[in-house]
Design a protein that fits this description.
Layout: H1 6-16, E1 27-32, H2 39-54, E2 59-64, H3 67-78, E3 86-89, H4 93-101, H5 109-115, H6 117-120, H7 123-126, E4 130-131, E5 137-142, E6 145-146, E7 149-157, H8 158-163, H9 172-184, E8 190-191, H10 198-208, H11 213-221, H12 229-244, H13 256-264, E9 270-274, H14 278-285, E10 289-292, E11 302-304, E12 307-309, H15 317-327, H16 330-338, H17 354-368, H18 383-396, H19 401-416
Parallel strand pairs: 1-2, 1-3, 8-9
Antiparallel strand pairs: 3-12, 4-5, 6-12, 7-9, 7-10, 7-11
Helix pairs in contact: 1-3, 2-15, 2-16, 10-12, 12-18, 12-19, 18-19
Length: 419
């Protein structure tokens, strides 16, 4: 399987490296990249406070990274002396799978039994924490631990919907009819960011509207050359939606934070994004924010969350295991849900927050209908940048939908043919 270029890794390494020297075995180093006001950020911060109270003699060194830093330089850092004792890592073949195939993680099967994690997490919860020798998810050693779930849905502004007498749509045709109403008012219906990951999620929702579980299994598992029909449809729809004013062509220059601001400020009534935004949206909009699954879809981008991994080079692995214990506790799982997130092992009776409760309800619906579609950038290494750039290009109109599908196909088929 291909890996990121040496130049890209070197640049990422410089971005991540901090110059921190492992002074002694009384230091615990931990990295994650969740925003402080997200459910994960809130919960893990409390978990870190608990850890410090339980380990008063330990020097705790926490560093907040970014998704791009970990994605672009993760394998190089994991293979160096700069690796922390515990870090959040993106799941999927192209990221966790790549590092796992290179033997860069500590295998956790025995630890999971000793610590009782196997009693908390199910086989389904662990499928994205296991990778075979080729870096394909679903089997092989346990190299990570997930403690939350996530999915992409549509968040909407209740007041803006009510002002136009619009109900939650139940089909793509209804959604488009609703968007026509807002366009006639001079309002861009969907806030978007194509210079960052969010536009990939909308693109994949559109692709999944034309896919079934078999297509998802083949795509994510590299089981066959890529059937590009769903991506061709997604490219066609994105260009159609730009032309109709449903999303702005200017979104090609927007980042995720710009998109979120456009939605929370009331400039757009909808945004298609993940549950990691549930807590920030609720904090900004209160009861005015609502949520529904992408209308008409059986399958949506969804999975267990990112995973805690213990680098093979970690110096204090037992401390890392102690922290994972805390994040899986009933108290912290409940806090995750009550902070607007989607805990993976919470007692439902302890989750009273309306946002968290709604997220659990919709996630259970997705699971029940076999609707976990994972994410479009997972199958092969380097695919994240391929998908981002191709999606940005089709929204800007610099490539045709056919060319967009070709961009999605070539790097995928190059790797798939080597399996």
């Amino acid at each position: 399987m291909r890996v990121l270029s040496k130049m890209a890794l070197a640049i990422g390494a410089m971005a991540l490296a901090t110059g921190v020297v492992h002074a002694d075995n009384k230091t615990f180093r931990i990295w994650w990249y969740e925003a402080a006001d997200s459910a994960a950020g809130i919960t893990w911060t409390q978990a870190l406070d608990t850890f410090k109270a339980d380990h008063p003699d330990i020097d705790v060194q926490f560093e907040l990274k970014t998704f791009d830093q970990i994605t672009k330089a993760g394998t190089l850092i994991l293979n160096s002396s700069e690796a922390p004792d515990l870090m959040e890592y993106n799941k999927g073949n192209s990221v966790a799978g790549l590092a796992a195939s290179q033997g860069l993680f500590t295998v956790l099967d025995d630890v999971a039994k000793e610590r009782g994690w196997d009693k908390v997490l199910t086989d389904a919860s662990n499928q994205l924490s296991r990778y075979d020798e080729n870096g394909i998810y679903g089997s092989g050693p346990l190299i990570g631990v997930a403690n939350y779930g996530e999915y992409v849905s549509v968040y909407y502004n209740k007041e803006m919907f009510a002002a136009e007498n619009i109900s939650v749509p139940t089909s793509l045709a209804e959604l488009e009819a609703d968007m026509d109403i807002f366009v006639k008012k001079g309002i861009t219906p969907i806030a978007e960011a194509a210079n960052d990951y969010p536009a990939q999620h909308l693109m994949y929702e559109l692709a999944l509207s034309q896919a079934d579980a078999g297509w998802v299994s083949d795509f994510q598992g590299l089981k066959a050359p890529l059937d590009t029909a769903p991506f061709l449809y997604a490219g066609q729809k994105l260009q159609e939606w730009v032309e109709k004013g449903y999303i702005s062509k200017d979104s090609t220059g927007f980042k995720a934070a710009d998109m979120a601001s456009q939605f929370t400020s009331g400039k757009s009534p909808m945004v298609v994004t993940g549950t990691w935004y549930g807590a920030p949206f609720a904090a900004a909009m209160g009861d005015n924010v609502g949520q529904f699954l992408f209308p008409g879809n059986v399958i949506s981008p969804a999975s267990t969350g990112n995973i805690w991994v213990v680098p093979k080079n970690a110096e204090n692995k037992d401390l890392a295991y102690d922290f994972i214990d805390i994040t899986l506790s009933k108290e912290n799982q409940a806090l995750f849900g009550n902070s607007g997130g989607l805990p993976i092992a919470a007692d439902p009776a302890m989750v009273t927050d309306p946002v968290g409760h709604e997220e659990v309800t919709l996630f259970n619906q997705l699971v029940a209908q076999n609707g976990l579609g994972f994410y479009p950038d997972w199958p092969v290494p380097g695919y994240y940048d391929v998908v981002l750039q191709a999606t940005q290009a089709v929204i800007s109109g610099t490539v045709t939908p056919e060319q967009f599908a070709e961009r999605m196909q070539k790097p995928y088929d190059d790797v798939q043919s080597d399996q």
